[in-house]
Every structure is written in C-alpha cells, then in structure tokens.
Specification:
The complex is a heterodimer of chains A (489) and B (242). With 489 residues, chain A is mainly α. Chain A is built from 22 helices and no strands. A six-stranded mixed sheet of chain B has the order 6-7-8-3-9-10, with helices on both faces. In chain B, strands 2-1-4-5 form a four-stranded antiparallel sheet, covered by helices on one side. Classes of the chains: A mainly alpha (489), B alpha/beta (242). At the A-B interface, helix 10, helix 15 and helix 22 of A face strand 6 and helix 2 of B.
C-alpha cells in the first residue's frame, strides 16, 4: 500500500506544474535551491569555529544550545506562513478501498520528509560532523543529532495542530518577544536555562529520547485528529471566505476607466497572491536603509538610482510584470466582451501611477540622509512614471503564462517566463546607465535632471504611447488567450 | 445575421472545423449538436474571435469578426466558467458586465428581477464570491450575465449541463421567449438532444468538424437525431439499399 502511495508522491512531484516549466526557470530554481542548501551547510560547518572565536574559553556547543530555543520559535513562525498539511490531495483516495488509517498515516508520513524538515538538517548535520572532528564523543553527538531530528519533527507536527490559527501565531510571536525581552533587560536568563536544557540532549544521551517521544506523541495526536475527520465536510473542505461588499463608487471620478479600476482594486484585495504583494511592496520602503546606511556608498553612486527606482517602483514591478496575466483566468471573457482594451490598460497604468506617488511619499523620510537622497528618489519616481510604466506594459504583451490567483505569493513561480527576467534590464539598467554617464561626464544634478525630464516627457506623451501599446496587445490577443488557457504553464 | 464562409480551422495539419457555408438569419434559435470533438466549441470560439480561423471568415451583422470589434456591442456569450471573475460576488459581476454594455445599476437590477425564480434564491445576496459557488450556480450567473444589455446575438455553449431539472426547464422557457420575440438570435450547443429539439427552430449536427445535418425542427427531428447518434442510420440505409 505504502509503496503505491510513494509512487504517486514521486509522480506528483515530477509531473507538477513547476517541474514542467521551461528549462531556464528550472535552472534558476535549481540554482536558488543549491544556493540555499549550500548556505545552510556552510553555516553549519563554520558556526562552530565562529562561536569559538567570538566567545573564547567556552564550549561552542553550549553557546549554540542557548540559541536553539530561538530557532524553535522562529521555525514555528516561519512554517506557519509556508507549510500546510496537504489534506486536499487525498480526496481521490476516499473512494478507493484503502483504510482511512493508512490515508492518515500517508499524509503525516509524507509531511515528515518535506523540504522544510530537511532544510534544518542541512545545517545540523555538518555541525555534527564538525563536532565529531573536534573530538566530541561520537555516541553523544549521534544522540544529539537524533534529538535534533526529534525536535524538527515535533515542530513539523505541532505546526499542523496549530494549523493556521491566528491566535497561536500571535502567541508564538509574543512568546518570542517576551523571551527576548526577559533576556535583554536581564530579568531572567532564559537563554541560559534553555541552553542547559538543549545541552542536556548532548550531555546525557538518554535525554535524547524525550524529543523523539514528543514527536511520536504529536504524530499520534495529529493522526487521531485527521483519522476522525476524513470527511468531505470536515477537514477536507476548503474554507470559503465571506464576501465583503465594498463601496468603490469614489472611483467614478476617474471616468471611463472606473469599472476596470474597481475590478483591479478588488483583484488586488481579494486574492492571496496580489494581497501579499502589496504588503511586500510596502515593506520595500525600508530597502533604502540597507544602502544609505553604508558609509562607502557615497552619493554619486549609481546604486542609489537603482534603490530609488526600486523603492518608488516596487509595485510597478511586482504588479506590472504580470499584466495582463492577473486577468488570465477570465481573459477570454474580457476579449469577447465589449471592452475597450485601451481603457483596460489605462486603468492598470493609473493604479501604478498612484502606487509610485504613494511610495515616493513614503520614501520622503530618507531626506534624513541629505537632500540628495530626496532628489534622487524624486527623479526616479518621475522616471518610473513616464518611462517605466510604458516599458512594463509593453513587456506585459509578451506574457502568456497563466496565473492562479488563489495561490500564495511566497515562492510562487507561476506566470514567470523569460519576460520577467528580461524586463529588469530596461527597468533598472537604462536609468542607471543614463545616470552614470551624465553624473560622470557632467554632474550629479545634470544626471538627475535628465532622468526627470525623460520621465516628464514620457508622462506627457503617455496617451500616444498607450495607443501603440494597445495595438500590440490587440495583435497578440490570440496567443495570450491560448497561453492563459493552459493550466500547467 | 451571421454568415459563415469557407471557414476552416486546422491545428498542426489536422482539420478540426470545416464549414463551407452557414447562414443564420436574425431571430433564429439555432442549435448545434455533436459528439465530443465535433467542433462545437471551436466554432463558438471562432465566432467570438477568441481563436483565428485558418481560412475563411465569419460575418456577424455585416461585420467580419476578426477585422473589426464592433460586433462585440451586440453579441454576448457564455462559454464556460472561465468567463466568470472568481473574486467578484454575483451582483458585482452583473454590474461589471452591465457597465461594459452601457447599462446602469438600475437597468441591471430590473433585468435581474426577471430572473428571480431562475436564481432560486441561491445567487443574489449570498455574500459569496463566484469562485465559491457550485458549478451549477456559476453557470446560472454566466447565462444571466449574457442577457444583460439587450444583445442581438446570444451564444451559449452547453447551457443545460450541470443545471438542476427545475432550472433546465426555466432556461428552456427563457430561450424560447427570447427566440419568440424574433429580435434575438440565440445560438445554443448541447449534448442533450431533447433540450435542443425543444428550444431550437433549427438544428445543425456537426461531426468531426463538418456539417452533416441541417434540420428545421419538427416532430420527427428528435427521432432523426437519435437515429443518427446511435449510429443506426447508415445501417438502415444499407439495408434499404440492398
């Protein structure tokens, strides 16, 4: 029985839509995965020596143990956002002559070999090997690793019991802060206590049984929970959100594009992926801090133009790069309706304009780093308005990949094709080159003026530009319709 | 109203649709039947300019559909659930379509009033997004949305599938009413021979992309169609020939 389950699992992985993607994306994704694994392994193998040097005359394992509690809490938080028990996948099995208990074991067993569990092992395994080389008792190290595996599995199963309850999320977050606070204000040396506890797993191999037993316990809890809820109306049902009617009549002042604007606002607000993207975009306001904080960056650096373009245009990129794929699931309806394509694009452009102005306003506090910072961000915002908006709309006409709106934005590669990689070149490269040339040969001010003028000119002629982009969209219509229909693109 | 000339659609060398000539006059209720893969949806997609014909053309009210977009003003359609916007509530969807067809809220509300019994209290004011409705209810929304804005041509692909019996009967009377006014040309495709013969004045049978029958509906039509689709027709012809 389990063998056929495993076979299915294998197929579902290799036939999943993300595997069917083009070779280029596979390579990029593979590269990221390798990079991630490599980083974890690198950290795992060097952290021992780093700790040794940072805090001399102490046992690095003791120090590491003190921080393991943060790891546990952090991982719980992290998984809350990313990992979900794949209960929906088992629907087809319910009708087959398979015992419900084996189905329950299958989903749980399968989750224990998930990527999330392995990712921490990529850190701890090299660390364990270093311990062995450094002459720690082999028996103890092995049991310590077993304890770690037990903890990872416990986290894994606790996560499913928490299962997206926001209250526990807040609880964990609060606990994390509280622990840190107690430590920071020297009220209670929590770290030390926790360190002793985690060190005990190494010190006394018998203790290593504890995490393994807890993992088993939580497994059993999950098992009995799932086993009794394998019904269509219990755990297998998708949650349906209550629709909230929203009054968007204020958009009427935008005239003919109002219906599309309303549609876009609803699109953004009522779908997971777009909503996450809005929040991520807002967070990127702090992106500049990374660069402005650096001493050696200097105001003349082209890097700051990159930062400016990025900060004021983050929504332009996040949202704009997938126009019109956002509407892919009903694109054929849009195309058979009495829709002026021009108005459709205009509404998208309007949305991006607003976002650029808004992000610029948010970035005003950078004036703290000098008026230059404000000037750079301002001219970058202008450049985004006038030049990058048409650029991104133009590249949108090359989008042929469908996007499922209900999937989360995190690590979601859906809708990504070569276009998304190419579009970055004109978006960032061009303004950086322009800026670099003028700043080098003329002056910093001249470079900013050129960027601003380009932006203003583009904005003034936006109607003409939009007209020709509309023509391109019309020409590519059939390809888009056919592309958006492909479920597994 | 709709004239088809030498229409051909090929995919990598395989012809999926080949209609030499077809003329659908204004106000006719036109039924398209055929097995899976006969080319019904391909024909409707061509009619809506969602795919390009390999050769030939379709003229909708003197407008060639792949040359101008003016036909969109008097044509409305519902092909499948991909015509719905999942994150809207039914009301929002109706108003959105209404706005595209120059109907204000009051116009749309007035139209929706006529369909209250069709909706059976499961569509309006449910505070549910379209993506969370059942297949049948989604279909109801799509069908009614295609009646918004006084279209002259209404295209419905498989409108009876997934509907409950009560709604099927209601839909039949709605289509009959539309056709009776002689203003609206209704194009319906279906697998259900009984429904089509009931509502359509004319039935065209597609088989492997070609028109094999073009019948004015009469008492005998259902029998004729059943005979054709059971594959016994040729058999009988063979017998009578011998």
């Amino acid at each position: 029985m389990f063998k056929s389950f495993l076979k299915l699992q294998w197929k579902s992985f290799f036939r999943s839509s993300s595997m069917g993607k083009s070779l280029g994306i596979k390579i990029v994704m593979g590269f990221f995965a390798l990079y991630f694994i490599g980083m974890m392994a690198f950290m795992g193998s060097t952290v021992f020596f780093l700790l040794e040097r940072a805090i001399p005359n102490s046992d690095p394992l003791v120090i590491l143990s003190q921080y393991l509690m943060y790891w546990v809490l952090g991982e719980l938080l992290f998984r809350y956002f990313l990992q979900k028990l794949p209960v929906m996948d088992i629907k087809p099995f319910l009708l087959l002559p398979i015992k419900k208990s084996s189905i329950a074991h299958y989903i749980l067993g399968r989750s224990s070999v998930s990527f999330y569990n392995f990712s921490s092992l990529f850190f701890f395994l090299p660390f364990g090997i270093v311990l062995l080389i450094e002459g720690y008792a082999a028996m103890h190290v092995v049991f310590w690793l077993m304890a770690i595996i037990g903890i990872v599995l416990t986290i894994n199963y606790i996560n499913f019991i928490i299962n997206k309850s926001e209250r526990t999320l807040v609880g964990i977050g609060f606990l994390l802060l509280a622990v840190y606070g107690l430590e920071y204000f020297k009220i209670l040396p929590v770290k030390e206590y926790a360190g002793k506890l985690f060190y005990a797993f190494y010190d006394n191999p018998l203790f290593a049984i504890i995490p393994l037993v807890t993992a088993g316990l939580f497994y059993y809890l999950n098992y009995s929970f799932i086993r009794n809820r394998l019904f269509l109306d219990a755990s297998l049902q998708k949650k349906t959100a209550q629709a909230n009617a929203s009054d968007l009549s204020w958009t009427k002042r935008f005239g003919a594009i109002a219906p599309f604007l309303q549609l876009d606002l609803k699109l953004i607000w009522r779908n997971k992926r777009t909503k996450t993207q809005v929040f991520m975009s807002l967070a990127f306001v702090f992106y500049g801090l990374l660069f402005y904080g650096m001493e050696d960056m200097g105001m003349g650096s082209g890097m700051l133009v990159f930062v400016g373009i990025f900060m004021t245009g983050v929504f332009l990129m996040n949202f704009g790069q997938f126009i019109p794929a956002w509407d892919s699931s009903y694109y054929s309806m849009m195309m058979s309706q009495n829709i002026p394509l021009r108005k459709y694009l205009e509404s998208k452009a309007m949305l991006i304009y607003v976002s650029i102005v808004f992000m610029f306003l948010l970035s005003i506090p950078y004036v703290y780093f000098g008026w230059d910072a404000l000037a750079i961000n301002f001219s970058c915002a202008l450049y985004n308005l006038g030049v990058n908006v048409p650029v991104i709309l133009f590249f949108g006409s090359k989008n042929k990949k469908r996007i499922d709106l209900n999937k989360s934005a995190m690590g979601n590669m859906q809708g990504i094709s070569a276009t998304q990689f190419v579009v970055g070149i004109p978006l960032f490269g061009l303004p950086m080159i322009i800026y670099g040339l003028f700043a080098f040969f003329v002056s910093f001010e001249a470079a900013l003026i050129v960027l601003s003028v380009l932006g203003v000119v583009g904005f003034v002629f936006r109607n003409k530009i939009l007209d020709s982009i509309t023509r391109i969209y019309r020409k590519k219509k059939y390809g888009m319709i056919a592309g958006f229909k492909e479920q597994n693109s | 109203m709709i004239i088809v000339e030498n229409l051909k659609k090929k995919y990598v060398g395989i012809t999926v649709l080949d209609i030499e000539h077809l003329d659908i006059p204004k106000g006719q209720s036109f039924g398209l039947v055929g097995n899976n893969g006969a080319g019904k949806t391909t024909f409707f997609s061509l009619l809506l300019d969602l795919i390009q014909p390999t050769t030939g053309k379709i003229i909708n009210n003197q407008i060639q559909v792949d040359q101008s977009e003016v036909w969109k003003k008097h044509t409305s359609s519902f092909i499948d659930e991909t015509f719905l916007i999942g994150y809207l509530t039914p009301e929002e969807y109706f108003y959105f379509i209404g706005e595209l067809r120059n109907q204000n809220k009051a116009d749309v509300d007035a139209l929706l009033n006529n369909f209250e019994d069709f909706f059976h209290g499961e569509i309006l004011n449910q505070r549910k997004y379209l993506r969370d409705l059942s297949k049948g209810n989604q279909k109801k929304v799509g069908i009614v949305a295609s009646f918004i804005g006084n279209p002259e041509v209404v295209i419905l692909d498989e409108p009876f599938a997934n509907l409950d019996p009560t709604t099927q009967i209601r839909l039949k009377s709605i289509i009959k009413d539309l056709a009776a006014k002689k203003e609206v040309t209704v194009l319906v495709s279906s697998h259900d021979l009984i429904h089509v013969t009931e509502v359509c004045e004319r039935i065209v049978v597609l088989n492997k992309g070609e028109i094999v029958k073009d019948i004015e509906t009469s008492e005998a039509t259902l029998k004729e169609l059943e005979l054709f689709f059971s594959g016994e027709e040729e058999f009988q012809e063979n017998i009578s020939a011998s």
